Structures are given as C-alpha cells and as structure tokens.
C-alpha cells in the first residue's frame, strides 16, 4: 500500500510499504478520507517520537471495511465506518463516572499505525469498546471525517454550558477556533468575538458566525473585549491556541463569575502567569479541557453528519494523500480551514 511515512521532523514521504494484516479479532479498514489535524501537523514537524521512526500518523479516519477477522459477526466487508482514535474501557472509575475522556486504560493511538495510508488495522480493543460508528447511506466520507475534530469542541462547550445569550470570546482562528465559533452559534450564543494574529484567518472566521474580529497585534485584545461587551467581559472565554500569553490575557476578558477555558495545549514545560488575586476577587472559573467522553464522541459525530452542521464550509481543500506536505503548508499559513486527504488515490 501507499502511506505517508514520517522519517523525522518535516520529513514525510509518500511511498510504498507493506500492507498490514487484518488483526485477529479485528478488521482492516480501507481508508477513504482522513482529516489533517493541528496535532498531526505538530507531530509531523517536530521530533515528536524522539528518534523512533519511521512512523505513520493520522487519526481522523473514515473508510470501508476491506477484511474482517473470521470470528467477527458485527461487521462485514463493505461496511462504511468512522473510527474514533481512542477507545475507552468503560469499566474504570473515570469511565463509570461519566468522564471516559480520562479513561485509565485508553488506547494509545499515537503509537499504533495511523490512517495516513491506504489501509488501517482496527484491533479488537477498538471494536469491542466505543470507538467505531457506522456512516449512514447518503453521508459522504469527507463530512464524516469531521466527527473526530468536532468531538473535543463539542465536549468543551457542553461541559461549560455555552448557551443562549452568551457572549463567547475565542482566541485563535485556526480550524478548531472556527469549530468553536460555529458550534457556539448553534448553541445560541448572541455574540462571538474572535481574536487572532492572522488577518486572513480572521476574515475566514466571519463565515462561521463570528460577530467581531480582533487582531491582537494591532490592538489590545483585553481592551477590545471590554469595549465590545460594555465593559463587562464575556461569559465564556476559550483559548484555542498554543500560547501561554493568550492564556494569561484570557483571564481579563471574562466577566465576573465567568469561565475561562484553556483548550489549546502549550509547549511542554511552558508556564502561564496567572493573576490569582484577580481570579479570586472576580469569582472566575478556569477550566482545562481535553478530549471527549464516550457519549460526547457519539453526539458530536451525529452532529457532524447532520444538516445542522455546515461541513462544506469547513472543508476548504480535498487533496490526494500524496500531497500531504502541501496540506500541511496550507493549514499552517491559514489558507486552509480544514484539509481532508484521500488515500487510495490510484483508484
């Protein structure tokens, strides 16, 4: 098969490699579409595996069953499936308390073969947990691939209850920031303020329900938020970027009693300066968000493939897998909102 194989930072080569065997108790998925995620780009452009190469990444996977282990009766060749990368055990304390995003036995998808390839082995651990969902007839593969990137955004906004009448500030107008804007509008937010350093991304973000844009290199973003909210600040502030400075500023954008979400991961070891006195006297809540629980994974996928979610606005570029490096560059410059790659391009 062909695969986009990482040999080191920024060294991704699309080449022939051995097709994986169908795992015992699992299935082999023919990958029909796979989204290019910001975390994929971070992994592919840094020494993410500390010299342990070659490796195939990719986790926003949808496809068609090509082979099934003989003992499997729940799936058949030709089934169309969305495979969430992390299987939750549904038995540990975290899972049983409704927080399977913190599963103590979650699968380590980053160290398995990923989906930037013609075929993806799906082991029994995934089939027997909560990671595999059917793609209904009439739903195209590209749209279904948005189920995974939407899941964490969906979970975040459900957990902090973005709701009717809220003013929501989003810091970072990348693909995830745009997901946040669109979902906040669907949930009834009355005003969405997008903060970003890239004018092209700010302009693009307007199509996702953003009411006001702020370029934080040209004006003080804290003052801008205060001005746009009559001096009060926002009910919810979501820092969807890898900046500790943005996290520090986010605290001052929330209204009294408001919620600040640290959604975007920052470089390991980086420390964020927090004015704890300001947090104390303004009764602020700071919420760290990562992942989605089992039901949120399902509900976000159902939203992604429904008429309520405009997938066509998000998927700006559909490229063959052989152009993965072009997709990375389009995303990094802000020209693309969401890139979907198509393996099996020889068909």
Give the helix/strand layout:
Blueprint: E1 2-8, E2 11-16, E3 27-35, H1 38-45, E4 60-68, E5 80-83, H2 93-96, E6 119-122, H3 124-127, E7 132-134, H4 141-144, H5 147-159, E8 167-171, H6 175-186, E9 191-196, H7 199-205, E10 212-215, H8 221-228, E11 234-239, H9 244-250, E12 254-262, H10 276-281, E13 285-288, H11 294-304, H12 311-314, E14 315-320, H13 324-333, E15 338-342
Parallel strand pairs: 8-9, 8-11, 9-10, 11-12, 12-13, 14-15
Antiparallel strand pairs: 1-2, 3-4, 3-6, 3-15, 4-5, 5-7
Question: Can you tell me about this structure?
Answer:
The chain is an alpha/beta fold and about 350 residues long. Helices cover about 30% and strands about 25% of the residues. It contains 13 helices and 15 strands. The longest helix has 13 residues, at about 145-160.
**Subunit organisation of the chains:** single chain
Indicate the proportion of strand residues.
Answer: 25-35%
Shape: globular
Helix and strand string, N-terminal first?
Answer: EEEHEEHEHEHHEHEHEHEHEHEHHEHE
Number of helices: 13
**Distance N to C terminus:** 12 Å
- Biggest β-sheet: count, sense, barrel? 7 strands, mixed
What's a concise summary of this model?
With 347 residues, this protein is an alpha/beta fold. The protein is built from 13 helices and 15 strands.
Key words describing this protein structure:
single chain; 347 residues; alpha/beta; seven-stranded mixed β-sheet; six-stranded parallel β-sheet; 28% helix; globular
């Amino acid at each position: 098969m062909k695969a986009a194989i990482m040999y080191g930072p920024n060294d991704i080569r699309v080449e022939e490699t051995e097709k994986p065997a169908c795992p015992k108790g699992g299935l082999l998925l023919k990958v029909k579409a796979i989204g290019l995620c910001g975390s994929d780009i971070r992994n592919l452009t840094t020494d993410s595996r500390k010299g342990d190469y070659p490796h195939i990444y990719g986790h926003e996977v949808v496809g068609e069953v090509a082979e099934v282990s003989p003992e499997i009766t729940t799936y058949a060749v030709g089934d169309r499936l969305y495979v969430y990368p992390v299987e939750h055990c549904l038995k540990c304390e975290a899972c049983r308390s409704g927080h399977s995003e913190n599963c103590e036995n979650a699968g380590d998808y980053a160290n398995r073969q990923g989906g930037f390839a013609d075929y993806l082995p799906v082991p029994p651990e995934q089939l027997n947990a909560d990671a595999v969902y059917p793609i209904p007839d009439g739903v195209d593969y590209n749209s279904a691939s948005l189920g995974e990137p939407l899941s964490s955004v969906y979970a975040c906004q459900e957990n902090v209850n973005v709701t009717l009448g809220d003013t929501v500030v989003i810091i970072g107008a990348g693909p995830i920031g745009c997901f946040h804007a669109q979902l906040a509008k669907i949930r009834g937010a009355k005003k969405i303020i997008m903060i970003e350093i890239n004018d092209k991304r700010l302009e693009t973000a307007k199509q996702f329900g953003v009411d006001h844009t702020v370029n934080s290199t040209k004006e003080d973003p804290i003052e801008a938020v205060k001005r746009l909210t009559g001096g009060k600040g926002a009910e919810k502030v979501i820092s969807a970027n890898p900046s500790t400075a943005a996290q520090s500023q986010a605290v001052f954008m929330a209204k009294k009693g408001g919620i600040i979400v640290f959604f975007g991961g920052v470089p390991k070891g980086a420390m964020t300066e927090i004015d704890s006195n300001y947090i104390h006297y303004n009764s602020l809540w700071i919420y760290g968000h990562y992942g989605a629980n089992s039901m949120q994974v399902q509900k976000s996928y159902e939203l992604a493939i429904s008429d309520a979610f405009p997938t066509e606005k998000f998927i700006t570029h559909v490229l063959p897998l052989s152009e993965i490096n072009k997709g990375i560059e389009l995303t990094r410059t802000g020209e693309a909102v969401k890139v979907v790659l198509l393996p099996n391009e020889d068909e």
